[in-house]
Amino acid sequence: MTQVGIIGAGPAGLMLSHLLHRQGITSVVLERRRRDYVERRVRAGVLEQGSTDLLASTGVGERMQREGLAHDGIKLRFAGEEHRIDFRRLTGRGITVYGQQEVVKDLIKQRLADGGEIWFEAEATAIEGIDGDHPRIAYRRNGEEATLSCEFVAGCDGSHGVSHAGLEAKSYERSYPFSWLGILAKTPPASNELIYAYHERGFALHSMRSPGISRLYLQVEAGDRMDAWPEARIWDELRLRLAEPKLQPGEIIEDGITPMRSMVMEPMQCGRLFLAGDAAHIVPATGAKGMNLALADVKVLAEALTAWYRSRSHDLLDRYSELCLGRVWRAEHFSAWMTALLHRDPAGDPFDHKLRLSYLRYIVTSEAAATTLAENYVGFEGA
Ligand code: FAD
Ligand code: DHB
Fold it and tell me: Are 304 and 211 in contact (CB under 8 A)?
């Protein structure tokens, strides 16, 4: 028995458990994978100011502040040109490049130091009784079936979890006719800032993790598999699309292909079940929003649960979805917009390509258009 049963030890579930602990609320996190698996899973890398503030102000930001890379802008490359979007000048804010798996490691370490319960290799199979006061999570651990009783269930189990099945909600979805091939490579970043490149052959992104490690992405066809992409082809394509002579091939330490998808569940709650992060919404990765949305959701959810445990006030819990969805839909729009702006549409025509180039040129010549990109990228606070 615990107060809040949390499914999933990604950024959302771990941060929620940490925030609740700070308010004296107990939780158990059920995670179907092993600890080393979740700590090694390479994913997002960009933290908005709101996310870094949340980590720092709750005592889990020390390593991020030391090792994270503060960036004040990004580079846009297209048609053989490079243009810088200066976030700091346009918005007064910047971003921090710090790997998601580092956030996950920092949170796990803190939870365990605080005596927190994270049950690895415990897979939730069903959620029961969310309309009553004592919902239950059925789970499987070490081949045994068992049940965790709680007072609230937080579904933080990502896009392939079980919790959204328990929700009576409308799902708004879009899929894209391309995927991202991502690599982590032992090669020094060829640029001190992220490079978002639009090329006739498709999108490419140059990012980084440390002075010796680069994170690189390529638009590939939906359905492409890694065996169609031998290392030499990856580097050739990156060099061509990024138009970056300084980019040197290095040992590839991780690779994978991620489909691009948009999805929002509305509402994000039902009875005593509350979804957060990728379980409730997916964004295509172009806008770097997924992890940030996950952290922002659980901040709202932790405040709502705290209000309930302090004074039995359910106003914030009732309004949880409403409090999140404005920000979620802004990020959905921005991510879909950045995706359309920077990717080659396989079904598109030359007219399409010209329109995209025109829009890119508008962004790099109009202060208003650049500000639109910048204030959304760093995290629009008015949504
Ligand atoms: P997850 O991190 O998916 O965590 C869910 C957890 O639940 C997992 O550990 C999973 O094993 C566990 N789980 C699932 N089902 C069960 C079950 N039945 N029982 C128990 N446990 C279960 N976002 C950004 O903000 N910026 C970026 O730059 C960015 N780039 C990305 C690049 C790539 C290649 C990918 C794949 C994603 C990227 N994202 C980015 C998105 C970001 O990684 C996700 O939005 C983020 O992981 C969401 O966190 P979460 O905690 O909601 O879900
Ligand atoms: C990274 C991932 C993204 O999706 C993005 O838009 C920018 C950077 C990264 O992994 O560093």
Answer: no
Atom of ligand 1 nearest to the CA of 139: 19
144 alpha carbon to ligand 2 midpoint, in Å? 38
Residue 204's pLDDT band, with cuts at 50, 70 and 90, is very high
SS3 state of residue 307: helix
What are the b/e assignments for 129-145, b being 16+ CB within 10 Å? bbeeeebbbebeeeeee
Judge whether residue 168 has pLDDT over 90. Answer: no
Round the average pLDDT of the chain to a whole number and report it. Answer: 97
Q: Is 206 left (phi over 0), alpha (psi -120 to 50) or beta?
A: beta
Please, are residues 287 and 74 in contact by the beta-carbon 8 Å criterion? no
Phi, psi of 249, rounded to the nearest 5 degrees = -60, 145
User: Ligand 1 atom 52: the closest Cα is on which residue?
Assistant: 277
Torsion of CA 276, 278, 281, 285, to 10 degrees: 140
Strand partners, 281: 264
Share of the chain above pLDDT 70, in %: 100
| Whole-number pLDDT of residue 367 | 98
Query: Nearest bound ligand to CA 122?
Result: 1
> In this structure, what token pair is assigned to residue 46?
């960009």
Provide φ and ψ at 308, rounded to 5°. -65, -50
Q: What percent of the chain has pLDDT over 90?
A: 97
- The 10 Å Cβ neighbour count of residue 327 is 21
Instruction: Note the pLDDT of residue 166.
Output: 75
Closest CA to 32 of 59, 7, 4: 7
What pLDDT score was predicted for residue 234? 98
Tell me what the mean pLDDT of segment 116-137 comes to: 97
Cβ of 100 closer than 6 Å to ligand 1, yes or no, is yes
β pairing state of 27-30 and 136-141 = unpaired
Q: For 246-288, how does the pLDDT look when each residue is reduced to its tens digit (9 = 90+)?
A: 999 999 999 999 999 999 999 999 999 999 999 999 999 999 9
Q: Is the CB of 207 under 6 A from ligand 2?
A: yes
User: Is residue 381's pLDDT more than 90?
Assistant: no
Amino acid at 216: L
Q: How far away, in angstroms, is 358 Cα from ligand 1 center?
A: 34
Distance 208 CA to ligand 2 centre (A): 9
